[in-house]
Amino acid sequence: AAAPANQTAGFIDCLVVSLPPGVVYTHASRSYQSVLESSIKNLLFDTPATPTPVAIVEATDASHVQAAVRCGVRHGVPIRSRSGGHDYEGLSYRSLEAASAFAVVDLAGALREVRVNVRRQTAWVGCGATLGEVYYAIANKSARLGFPGSVGPTVGVGGFLSGGGFGLMLRKHGLASDLILDATIVDAKGRLLDRAAMDEDLFWAIRGGGGGNFGIVLSWKLHLVPVPATVTVFTVHRSRNQSATDLLTKWQRVAPSLPNDIFLRVVVQNQNAQFESLYLGTRAGLVAAMAASFPELGVTASDCIEMTWIQSVLYFAFYGTGKPLEMLLDRGTGRPDRYFKAKSDCVQEPMPSLVWESTWSWFLKDGAGLLILDPYGGEMARVAPAETPFPHRQELYNIQYYGFWSESGTAAAEKHMGWIRGLYREMEPYVSKNPRGAYVNYRDLDLGVNDDGDGAGAASYEKARVWGEAYFKGNFERLAAVKAKVDPDNFFKNEQSIPPLPT
Ligand code: FDA
Fold this sequence. Notes:
This protein is of the alpha+beta class and 503 residues long.
């Protein structure tokens, strides 16, 4: 239920007396709007009608996060955490209902230290850091260590690792969250816990069970992975009339079963399939492997570029070579340049070529977006689906449907969202079923939202199962059981947070 106005006022008073000056921003603060917008990535949620937090706490110390949680609990004002602000539905800084007061603890201001220990191959990373900052810090210490993070460098490690997190080394090293060794978290009682102090079930849940559910993670200890001195990349385009349909059909079987050192994804847009590859080895090795497994793609030595691993991060982030390392430090704090909407699917069986052939017509429509196909297999498939909350380990690949536009207004939004939802509907017979799977880091409120109430009852749980099992399959019930144990009053909640398992 919404916190009444006097509760909100009491909450803000509590923040003001508990926290030092310059940390709390309310609607009355001159810089409230710029702090709020500092990591909004989707223009859809940067409008005067968007329900915004009653207060933003720009924490510079763990004790600020603890104090904010205690004030929230005392005055009945729920708190959302924001690290990089990339949530596809903006749930880290906006709510759907104007009536429900909430506050934001923002970690991006100061809780973003990255401490790399080369000898131990570990790093302690503050959740306000971006993946770009993590890559940069690693590269500054060692050319032979890396981390399998996101393709986009501005993504925050707080949300990314909470939801699993995958990128171009997932076939070699699995999900980013598979490499979490320890964490510090502020729980619903305002306690600061590390792995030794927290319930082992909670440590299981925060490694992929989705951001915003169990507490506010302040930092992660990560295992860094070895990278070779030379990696190789290519990007080749094949158009519809250059047999892209046949290539896509074959790719579905080949990409998940290539040697683990090869990642080969596809971006489908317009009448083209763009094949992008990162190989953890030299050009000769990649050319030979492609000739053996996927000769139809016709990859030649001249398509392949050798570079260091960190250069490959820049190559895929900014599409090109010779970009300066410092580009990884740009958090992109300006106003976003696009509206976007995404959806996701898991694919268990290769789709027939007829399906791909008929899909091309979708890319001729006004409002067309793109598809990103990320293959699994390799290390992803080695881990049992219940070992971490991410359950889609055994599937062939993930589809991301992505629509983006820059024109304002509802007509443009409806056109682009209509495209995405239409293609998603059309794909239903060919993707995973019962439940139709989805990736929690590609948050999609079309799958369902929580009740308006406190979300703690049996009805709420049943309703949440619809989207919860799409994201987590059989792991959803265990996540709800962990929630009942660590946050039974459902303090950490949003429109798609995990409700406590009813007793
Ligand atoms: P944000 O701060 O919005 O948080 C997301 C969710 O986690 C919210 O519910 C929030 O409350 C919660 N949360 C945030 N910080 C938390 C904390 N410290 N403790 C607990 N909960 C916390 N994904 C992927 O797997 N691979 C990829 O390559 C990419 N690339 C990519 C590019 C771009 C441009 C975007 C917009 C998104 C991606 N993503 C992605 C998706 C991304 O992983 C997902 O949006 C993450 O949740 C973003 O984490 P942020 O911290 O940036 O978001």
